[in-house]
Amino acid sequence: MRFRLFAGYSARLGMVLGCAIIAFVCVAGSPALLAADAESDYVIQPGDVLLVSVWREPDLQQPVLVRPDGGISFPLAGDLQAAGKTIAQLTQDLASKIVKYIPSPVVTVTLQENLGNRIYVTGKVAKPGVYLINQYVDVLQALSMAGGLTPFADRDSIKILRREGGVEKVLPFNYKQVEKGRELEQNIRLRPGDTVLVP
């Protein structure tokens, strides 16, 4: 009798543990968590809109626009640099400022709109324009987003214009070579603000 009870208990315990493991796997692989991981790696750009809130402080919950100079303003924290930082880094910076007025503040920063994460594709492509990006985009992918090259495009003279520290850089991209699987290092990951110029 005891053996039967033990066997029944073991079977039920196994079912419970099995369900728990399945639930954990489903939650761990859910799109929401994957999106959260992607957002945690996102680098803030000028033009982005962030939602900043402090737990149990209703007056400290508001959307914040990242200014063209990369800075933001928030009550009790004043002005601080946001552009170039991840969401986690900015959260820590805000907490270190607010702690002077609120003990152990719980600060939350979420990305509402990534309007600053833009690239530009211009010249002889099917759909030149401004493109918002929220993930890894290389030169070939950007050209595909723009509908591809026109028949008269100069495929071996494409350029990527990039501004770093106030200095404009020109990075060459030879479509013909990359198309043949050569010099693939030219197919760089684009950064916000980059311009792909197709002559």
Explained architecture:
With 199 residues, the protein is of the alpha+beta class. The chain has 3 domains: 2-32; 42-113, wza like fold (2-Layer Sandwich), CATH 3.30.1950.10; 118-198, Outer membrane lipoprotein wza domain like (Outer membrane lipoprotein wza fold like, Roll), CATH 3.10.560.10. 31% of the residues lie in helices and 29% in strands. The chain has helices at 2-28, 31-41, 87-98, 139-145, 175-179; strands at 49-54, 57-65, 71-74, 78-81, 107-113, 118-123, 129-132, 158-164, 167-173, 195-198. It has a 5-stranded mixed β-sheet, covered by helices on one side. A hairpin with a 5-residue loop joins strand 6 (118-123) and strand 7 (129-132). The chain is elongated and about 60 Å long. Mean pLDDT is 83; it is low at 1-38.
Quick recap:
The chain is α+β, with helices and mostly antiparallel strands and 199 residues long.
